[in-house]
Amino acid sequence: MFILGLLLLAATGAFTGLVIAGNLSGGPEYTVSVLGQDIATMNTLAVFCSGLALALIFCAGLSAVASAAAHRRREHPRTHATHPGGPGR
User: Fold this and answer.
1) What are φ and ψ of residue 62, in 5° steps?
2) What is the per-residue pLDDT for 26?
C-alpha cells in the first residue's frame, strides 16, 4: 500500500506539473496538452473540476502512504534491550 500511495503521489504531481508547464497561455477555452499531445479542450469550469479531481487523487495517495506508515509503526514496536546490571535487575 505504501508503494501504491507513493506511485499515486508521484504520478499526480508529475501530471499536474507537465500540464501547468505546457499550458501557461490561456483564454476562455484551454487546449490541454501534455508532452506535445493535445488531450482536450476545456472551459474554465472543466479545468477547475479536473483540478479538484487531481487534488482528490493526490489526497488518496497521501492517505495511503500515511496509513501504511502508521501500520508499519504499530506492527513493529520498538523494544528496549535491558542491560545486565541495569535498573531492571
Assistant:
1) -65, -40
2) 61
